[in-house]
Amino acid sequence: MPARIDKLANLNSHTPAADERNVRQLAIKQIERKRRFWTRTAVTTIGMLALIVIWAISEYYNAGGWPTNGFSQSSGIPGEWNIWIVYPLLAWVLFTAAGAWDLYLRKPISEQEIKREIERQSR
Question: Is the pLDDT of residue 98 over 80?
Fold first, then answer.
């Protein structure tokens, strides 16, 4: 039992150096998360642009030119382009928005939340 009390005392004692180290580590993790997000966004943007180019080239040849009659859900109709490209574009926008929400709008876990969860689990 005394060993457990010592551990709890060590957990509750915060030195300025330890707090500064923790803040620094959190800042580094956040910077790394931002870099991963922007790298992933850049790579997927390039991929989506390539997909749009492939779609435009294939639809140009399938429809026999530019979409003079608009867009449809069918392929091979002269003068109409198949609009399937909107589905991967919408998915990409949703996944990118979810990643941005996770990175910029979600709050980090607070010490109060941790203590509340520990108390809830110990009951």
Answer: yes
